[in-house]
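re: ur question from yesterday

yeah so i grabbed the chain u mentioned. its 114 aa long if i counted rite. heres the sequnce exactly as i have it in my notes:
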Amino acid sequence: RVLGPRNEMGRQRPVYRHAEKVTGKSREEKLFAQLTFPDNFSTKVDMRKVEVAILRPWITTNVNQYVGMEDDIAINMVMAELEREDTPDPRRIQTNLTGFLERNTAEFMEDLWA
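ran it thru and got these structure tokens back, copy pasting raw so excuse formatting
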């Protein structure tokens, strides 16, 4: 907590810093520390060497199976996450997909990353 500038009555109001600045850890890092992930998530995958278009049918089939219907938004999100970086972080992908695949997210990601 840091005191901010004085107001017209001469009092200083407390200014609270964002938690990331205070602790040095991002919200994502804190979330990852609370969750458990499979051992194979430590394997780095260079997406420049992966033909992502070949993965699309597998991703489509499995997302549709877990969601119970065709969900283009979730499929496109998985594809975008894989193409986002040269070496994507499967932990981040899993946390971002949880809203779509819910309790099936961990199983889907473990199969994808295997």
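noticed a couple things. The radius of gyration is 20 Å. also The first helix runs from residue 19 to 23.
anyway ttyl
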